[in-house]
Amino acid sequence: MDRIVDIATDGRHLSRERGFLKVSENGTEIGRIALDDITAVISHAHGITWSSSLLGELADRGVPVVLCGTNHAPRSVLMPLNGHHAQGARMRAQWAVKTPLIKQAWKQIIVAKIAMQAAALEAVGEAHAPLVQMARKVTSGDTLNTEAQAARYYWPLMMNEGFRRDRDAPDINALLNYGYTVLRAATARAIVAAGLHPSIGVHHANRSNAFALADDLMEPFRPLVDCTVRGLAARNGEQVDTEAKQTLTRLISLDLPLGDGQTPVSVALCKLATSLGQSFEIGKLNLALPNPPDAVTLAGLGS
Q: Where does the chain have alpha helices with state H?
């Protein structure tokens, strides 16, 4: 069972006890969750204290600990040093991969993202055909910046005509920040578990971004957050409250079409990261990218 633990109340103490993460307040236990069920721990609160044994146990399980700012965007992510039994060889292959393969990988990721955006617009009754056409025009490395063209078309229809994506803005942008933080944490865990280094991106290459590869691989999954935020805002307003957080964290359990079956988002991320690592090693691209869920599922997210 994949679960995101969100710590949003000030002054809590987190510790390990017999295979559980225990949450205490003023010395009194107020809750616990099995460590093996945790996908990520996200903290938004002040005055949180952690036991070193808990952090060690989370690291052993590859569970990221994400510290967020007031805008619900991540400020710091704690990840383990070791991930996969073939980590050394896979990271060497990651460093040495040839540029043409990298460019083709980014093309496939962007095609998958735009296809998911098109499916999302179709599901909410907006015109999606232009995005379908854009997906067909993506070049190797997306040299024509079709991703940005698609975004300019997509956002006004997904949210509203005056919407602008701004990490530092409140309301809907804050909801998006939180949803993307959940997705980024799950992606980072999948990358480490696959033996890859999260700072070595396919496209994102900011020197200060320690999770460039996570930002790359989560791209096709972002429209799932967008649909959920749209539904939440219409039903419950734009505040990042407990209900909104719980709804967004459940996205990692959403089933997506992948291969011949249905796969939860958290598993789909692991398969994508693993397929990328294997592609680096053999020098031939074979990415396990998900297909969009059906329109009814997309339209129902967040509602």
A: 52-60, 87-96, 99-123, 129-136, 146-158, 172-193, 212-217, 222-236, 242-249, 265-282, 295-300
Note the maximum CA span of the chain: 59
Average pLDDT of the chain?
Answer: 90
User: Residue 76 in contact with residue 185, Cβ under 8 Å?
Assistant: no
Fold designation for 3-63? Ribosomal Protein L15; Chain: K; domain 2 (3.100.10)
Q: Is the pLDDT of residue 51 over 90?
A: yes
* CATH 3.40.50.2000 for domain 87-300: no
Rounded Cα gap, residues 135 and 270, in angstroms: 24
Q: What is the pLDDT of residue 85?
A: 57
Q: Are 12 and 45 in contact (CB under 8 A)?
A: yes
Tens digit of each residue's pLDDT (9 = 90 or more) over 135-188: 999 999 999 999 999 999 999 999 988 888 888 888 899 999 999 999 998 998
Which residues of 18-94 form beta strands (DSSP E)? Answer: 20-25, 28-34, 38-43, 49-50, 65-68, 74-78
94 Cβ contact partners less than 8 Å away, ≥ 6 residues apart: 196, 197, 200, 277, 280
- Model's pTM, two decimal places? 0.84
Range of lowest pLDDT (80-89, 161-170, 207-216): 80-89
CB under 8 A, 24+ apart: contacts of 249-254 = 249/3, 249/4, 249/6, 249/182, 251/179, 251/182, 251/183, 251/224, 251/225, 251/301, 252/2, 252/4, 252/39, 252/182, 252/183, 252/186, 253/2, 254/224, 254/293, 254/297, 254/301
Using the Cα atoms of residue 199, residue 190, residue 194 and residue 54 in order, give the sign of their dihedral: positive
Helix, strand or coil for residue 275?
Answer: helix
Ordered by start, the domain boundaries in the chain are: 3-63, 87-300
